[in-house]
Amino acid sequence: MALMPVADALAAVVSGVDPLPEESVTLEQGYHRVLARDVAARRTQPPNPMSAMDGYAVRAADVATVPARLTVTGEIAAGRPFTGTLQQGNAIRIFTGGVIPDGADAVVIQEDTDRDGDIVIVNERAVAARHIRPAGVDFREGDVLLHRGARLTDRALSLAASMNHTTLPVRQRPKVAILATGDELVAAGGAPGPGQIISSNAYALQALARAEGAEAIDLGTVGDTLEATTAAVRRARDSGADILVTTGGASVGDHDLVKSALDAEGVEMAFWKIALRPGKPMMHGRLGSMRILGLPGNPVSSYVCGFLFMAPLIRALSGRSDIHPPLEAALLGGPLPENDQRQDYLRARLELRSDGLPIATAVSKQDSSLLGNLSAAQALIVRPPFAAAAAAGSSCFILKLPL
Predict the structure, then answer these.
(1) 389 alpha carbon, distance to own chain's centre
(2) Do 346 and 396 lie in a common domain?
(3) Which domain holds residue 365?
(4) Which residues, at least 6 apart from 241, have a Cβ–Cβ distance to it below 8 Å?
(5) What count of Cα atoms within 13 Å lies in the side-chain half-sphere of residue 280?
(6) Handedness of CA 233, 236, 241, 245 (dihedral sign)
(7) Is 66 helix (H, G, I), strand (E, B) or coil?
């Protein structure tokens, strides 16, 4: 069976994915949710010309020659506008955020003035429009400032509030059910017996799913029996999961039962085995509306496949406009040998040159069981199939890992 190229596998995972339905959330609930529709401003900001400084609202013509003596006829604070019109030869004390009164066309800052009772002496010439924020300089009613498919940041929520929205239309969160398989697995904190190891994959995958905005459902660990594995697949379906992620049991050994369990449940398999290192024994299929990713059991393989395939699938279901993480240019910090038919994702440490270009140095041991090296890595060096040997200082491409 030929290995599927990574690009084809990525395309298959997100192909035909429709974003989940829309729901409305409050601004307090909106952080990192994904907008289902464009959002337009319901007001103009600022609604009136505003002072950008503490000082005096004046007519520029009255202070064309300095020093100029003007009579102070009022005071304007934020939220307390002046109701009259500024007359020739007068000035109005104004504070930052105050509405520019009719008749005024400039603000002189208080540092350029002296005060003598009701008289202000202006020592610097005023320039029309200086220190004034025009109405609508930030945005105007009807302006579309937040766009469909964008993930809401803290700044976006502040903007939405300023646009006078209290709720926002977002996509429902994808539900990701995560199932670990294998008789050798023991829960963290337990005492492994002979040949057993601590189960760790689910913790990274749950954190990765939540960081992408999904709801993570832990299905726990099942042993290497077809009955237990099949029952867990049914539990995932019954939970309403949009994605089932399994770890382990995806290879071809007598105890690798995930594919058999999926076949027994009628899963439509899109692929099984891809030209990827680490992560060759990975599979993808569908059971009704639930998409399934069968990841390898080795911790590094599990995480890399989750990063490359689960995260984009969550983004696609969320309606994100940025489904795939971007490749970034870098330089190799050390030599690399030629590559075989599989696309390599090498764990690497990063440092920055003085010009800001990253230098990516592959960790010395790339075994797919070594979590210490994965934890220390900041990026993956992407090596295409059959890449020639590369010297230190050569150009390469990297995928930065989440912080």
Answers:
(1) 34
(2) yes
(3) 328-400
(4) 175, 176, 177, 217, 290
(5) 13
(6) negative
(7) coil
Q: Give the tens place of pLDDT for each residue, 272-323.
A: 889 999 999 999 999 999 999 999 999 999 999 999 999 999 999 999 999 9
- Write b or e for each residue in 205-241: b if 16 or more Cβ atoms lie within 10 A of its Cβ, otherwise e: bbebbeebbbbbbebebbebeeeebbebbebbbeeeb
Domain count, the chain: 4
Residue 255, token pair as written in the block? 């105890």
Helix/strand number for the chain, H first, E second: 8, 26
Q: What are phi and psi of 343, to 5 degrees?
A: -75, 125
Of the residues 284, 317, 350, the one at which a domain ends: 317
**What does DSSP say about strands 343-352 and 328-332: parallel, antiparallel, or unpaired?**
unpaired
Give the span between the Cα atoms of 14 and 21, in whole angstroms.
17
Whether the CB-CB separation of 54 and 95 falls below 8 Å is answered with yes
Block residue for tokens 């009628």? 266
